[in-house]
Design brief:
Layout (H helix, E strand, L loop, with lengths): L32 H8 L2 H13 L4 H17 L8 H12 L3 E5 L5 H9 L4 E6 L13 H10 L6 E5 L2 H11 L5 E6 L5 H11 L3 E10 L9 H10 L4 E6 L6 E6 L2
Parallel strand pairs: 1-2, 1-4, 2-3, 4-5
Antiparallel strand pairs: 5-7, 6-7
Length: 258
């Protein structure tokens, strides 16, 4: 289990803090995950995701996904209840207005650019070992991600930590003892043990009101990721969680209550 300690940093946009001298009756988080999910699954969000992918450099997967979005929108219109890492991060970044974002598994920068499109001044801490030919596609590394972020006018810090997250996260957190994050995405090592380890490393650094995003919870090749998500997040009362695990590859996100 993650080694949580008291967190004194909050995401102000979605937390309510009693004034000095007054009692803080409730946990500070004011929004449930369900409230944000409603904003991640609408027809407008699909159009936004299509536009976002159109600004990024293409690969086989992004071309497939653009067509999938367009087909879903045209066949099912506003009845289409679809979510993925892009639509979830669009909704979260819009609502939370993050100042600091950590991501394990950056690949070609799609998810960091999704956050940048809503919060261009956010500081980005990006961890990847740039596995070559990842999923059969080029995975060139920080230079491409930098070019992609420039397209979105990203002006915050860009800290790349190259290497295996199981070797890089611990020293990074040791060197940055007070750093906490508004949104954290875990989308790197997709083995059971690797995903557990990544989540356990990063979760104690999530601010109160902050969001954890976990991709591919119903990926046919990694079905156990749903168990990882359930054990570490869904079953933990400190989170309000929402999961889409029925179509696509699925995604889960949760907000920290305390
Ligand atoms: C699924 S892709 C990330 C996709 C990206 N989040 C997006 O939405 O476009 C996974 C990435 O994780 C990286 N990766 C896999 N195992 C890793 C590890 N142990 N440490 C660091 N990065 C890893 C791969 O190099 C790859 O770029």
């Amino acid at each position: 289990m993650p080694a949580y300690s008291t967190m004194d940093q909050y995401v102000e946009a979605i937390c309510y803090k009693a004034a000095v001298g007054q009692t803080q009756w409730y946990p500070p988080l004011m929004l449930s995950a369900e409230s944000i999910a409603q904003r991640a699954i609408g027809a407008d969000r699909i159009q936004e995701a299509i536009a976002l992918l159109g600004r990024l450099s293409h690969d086989d997967y992004s071309e497939y996904l653009s067509k999938y979005y367009q087909e879903g929108a045209s066949r099912f219109g506003s009845d289409w209840r679809y979510a993925d890492i892009v639509t979830v991060l669009l909704a979260l970044a819009e609502q939370l207005q993050p100042k600091s974002y950590l991501e394990i598994g950056v690949r070609r920068g799609r998810s960091v650019c999704t956050v940048a499109s809503k919060a261009p001044a956010c500081d980005f801490y990006m961890f990847d070992m740039w596995v070559s030919n990842y999923a059969g596609m080029e995975n060139p590394g920080p230079d491409l991600v930098t070019q992609e972020l420039d397209k979105f006018g990203h002006s915050g810090k860009r800290v790349f930590t190259d290497g295996n997250s199981h070797a890089t996260l611990k020293p990074f957190f040791k060197a940055n003892a007070n750093l906490a994050f508004d949104i954290i995405t875990v989308d790197g090592d997709h083995t059971y043990d690797g995903a557990v380890e990544d989540l356990c490393e990063v979760l104690p650094r999530l601010k109160v009101g902050g969001a954890i995003v976990f991709d591919d919870v119903c990926h046919p090749k990694h079905r156990y990721l749903q168990d990882v998500w359930n054990q570490l997040i869904e079953n933990d009362p400190r989170f309000t969680a929402w999961t889409c695990a029925d179509i696509g590859y699925g995604v889960g996100f949760a907000l920290r209550k305390w």
